[in-house]
Amino acid sequence: MNRLLLAVVIIVLAVLPVLPGTPTFWITHLNYIGLASLVVLGLIVLTGIGGLTSFGQAAFVGIGAYATAWMSTALGLSPWVGLLAGLAITCLVAYVLGAITLRLSGHYLPLGTIAWCLSLYYLFGNLNFLGQYDGIAGIVPIDVFGFSLSQGRRIYYLIWIFVLLAMWATRNLLDSRPGRAIRALRGSGGMAESFGVNMATYKVIIFVYAALLASLSGWLYAHMQRAVSPSPFGLNYGIEYLFMAVVGGTGSVWGAVLGSGLILTLKDQLQNVLPKILDTNANFELIVFGVLMILVLQYARHGVWPILATWWSTVFGRGQARGGAAPRQAPALPQRPRPEKGRLVLEVDAIRKEFGGLVAVNDITFKLKAGEIMGLIGPNGAGKSTTFNLISGVLKATRGQVSFLGQRLDTMPAREIASLGVGRTFQHVQLLPTMTVIENVALGAHLRSKVGVLSALLHAERSQEAQLLHEAAVQLERVGLGEYLYEQAGNLALGQQRIVEIARALAADPVLLLLDEPAAGLRYKEKQALATVLDQLRQEGMSILLVEHDMDFVMNLTDHLVVMDFGTKLAEGTPDEVQRNPAVLAAYLGGIDDDLDLAEQAVPDAAHSGSVGQPLANGRLA
Ligand code: ADP
Ligand code: MG
After folding, report:
1. Which 8-state DSSP code applies to residue 48?
2. Phi, psi at residue 251, to the nearest 5°?
3. Cα 97 from chain centre
4. Ligand 1 atom closest to Cα of 386?
5. What average pLDDT does the structure give for the chain?
6. In this predicted model, what pLDDT tens digit does every residue of 83-112 receive, in sequence order?
7. Residue 589 pLDDT more than 90?
8. CA neighbours within 13 Å on the CB side: how many for 54?
9. Is the C-beta atom of 45 inside 6 A of ligand 1?
10. SS3 state of residue 422
11. What is the C-alpha to C-alpha distance for residues 496 and 482, in angstroms, rounded to an integer?
């Protein structure tokens, strides 16, 4: 669908200026739309995809504009030198600002962006060598191979070539290894880090990327206007850019052009019409904008683009272009060496976690060997998930030690633990619901590739990308979800989403797999299939630590069990031993019936009832 649209857009854009009847103000207007589109495109990545709201992009436009304005007038340098200098300065400023402000969470980040937008505005206005509030005039036009872009109709082509290139590069970026990490920034905390994504770094990356696009826009602006002054780089414009992104639609690169086009056209019309109706020259269009913003947020939360896209595909579309076929064959990714069977993999030594006065994990100790499945069971609130979070580095232990193949984990951040070969799933599913299943799983293989932003922008990494997607497909096939590769993850049943999480963890090529209630929400057959997969992984030498409430599942699958209650280790041993342990029986059954077999009690009769693994009876388990 987008190909056809792209072709139409390119043809219309290309012929407009050469058609004899096209009025000059159309061209000027389109130039402004193009300039704004560049800035808004950056915002789509930063705010729409990455979830980082910035009101301050206009300041970066200013940096790009002033850098080239000063260099070409004061130093007589070529605009192209000015472009490089502007981008370099922007990069530096954005990096420093980003490193400081991106640490701010919640409302503080937007407030921070307002603060630096205002500061830079006043800086432009007060620096002598930048002409203070009068700005800089007499800027030379851009020269391309001796061809001077002195008229609107000429620079028009340069502007739109940059817009289309930026759209192409941005799409490439989002559809890549770094792109998946960027799209995961919005996910709930900890998930992406557990697969080795350095979220802080990616936040800075998209911040700098958005700033560079804004700076490029500023460079074009300066040479189009041939003069700069502080006013177009003030906070008003920063807000307007954000508004364009919201109206256009923050989920697609097309939203940038659409939003810029809609807002600038509307603004232009309102500035013409309102003074006539209201008989005043005051800026009433701002009020109309405010009302419009509320309407958009109310009725088209995701902007106008998705509505248009749906309409377009019903009219012109031949259904989804993306079929169910597996991604193309690619060489398998290298695997890390596996410890030999029986080697000590995980050693948890008296770890403790206190939440205020609550001791969620009370000096728990256990060991796990290679090629072993260990179950961690216990009633709700026993501290099982917290133990998982301590091992995987999502939470810091109050005290105690965790060692993995002889290395201490408890001092490491989650992403380093992931890089050593610890993969996990979450009790509360943490997939990116609008991303396809295969992309979600490929995120798990993040650390198995080194593809960076630059090669992603240029799509120069297609062979590595194919390897990642192939690996994701293989893992999905393995867990039985091979037919859902291109389904949106959010459309799967919750039980299936848990299985996707297992595939994602497997894509990381782990040595140790931590599964938090993987069988919850699965039907009997699905549970059996899962047990087969886990058993096979064990035979391949994987170590698995499993939290699960389905006693039948646990007792049949695990080699070793640790029972927790109120944060404390209640018992430990083989499933057989644990089932006969009086303390366990007392905790689960209130000690009424000493000689009951735990598993039988827990599971009336799977085959007959059809609902395997009713949790244990007395309500302590849910
Ligand atoms: P389980 O997974 O065994 O059901 P959890 O590990 O989730 O249990 O929780 C253990 C205890 O710690 C519970 O009482 C829970 O309320 C508490 N808890 C878990 N996470 C937090 C947190 N982030 N802050 C405060 N209390 C928590
Ligand atoms: Mg839990």
Report:
1. I
2. -100, -10
3. 21
4. 6
5. 88
6. 999 999 999 999 999 988 888 777 888 999
7. no
8. 35
9. no
10. strand
11. 12
Nearest Cα to Cα of residue 244 among 51, 40, 380: 40
Looking at per-residue confidence, does 518 or 319 come out higher?
518
Strands 373-377 and 543-547: parallel
Q: What phi, psi does 229 have (nearest 5°)?
A: -145, 165
Q: Which of 353, 354, 364, 386 to mutate to test the pocket of ligand 1 (most atoms within 8 A of CB)?
A: 386
Whether the predicted pLDDT of 11 surpasses 60: yes
Q: Where do we find the tokens 């008296």?
A: 350
Backbone angles phi, psi at 345, to 5 degrees: -100, -50
Give the end-to-end CA distance of the chain in Å, rounded to a whole number: 47
* Calpha distance 190→437 (Å, rounded): 19
pLDDT at 597 over 60: no
Tokens matching residue 276: 């006539």
What are 235-248's pLDDT values in tens digits?
999 999 999 999 99
Instruction: Give the pLDDT confidence of 115-169 residue by residue, as tens digits.
Output: 999 999 999 999 999 989 999 999 999 988 888 888 878 899 999 999 999 999 9
Are 436 and 504 spatial neighbours (Cβ–Cβ below 8 Å)?
no
Segment 67-90 mean pLDDT: 95
Residue keyed to tokens 């893992």: 475
- DSSP code, position 321: S
Compute, in angstroms, the gap from residue 103 CA to the centroid of ligand 1.
27
Using CA atoms, how far apart are residues 593 and 588, in angstroms rounded to an integer?
Answer: 11
Kindly state the greatest CA–CA separation across the chain: 96
- What homologous superfamily does CATH list for 339-421+510-581? P-loop containing nucleotide triphosphate hydrolases (3.40.50.300)
What are the tens digits of pLDDT across the range 161-176?
999 999 999 999 999 9
Q: Give nearest CA residue, ligand 1 atom 25.
A: 355
**Residue extent(s) of CATH 3.40.50.300 domains in the chain:** 339-421+510-581
Tokens of 483: 């037919």
Pairing of strands 358-369, 344-355: antiparallel
| Rg value, the chain, Cα | 29
Half-sphere exposure of 14 toward its Cβ, with a 13 Å CA cutoff? 8
- Which run of H or of E encompasses 503? helix 494-507
- Span 304-325, pLDDT tens digits: 888 888 888 788 765 444 555 6
Q: Mention every residue, 6+ apart, whose C-beta is less than 8 A from residue 161.
A: none
Q: What is the spatial distance between Cα 122 and Cα 234, in angstroms, rounded to a whole number?
A: 9
Is the CB of 355 inside a 6 Å radius of any atom of ligand 1?
Answer: yes
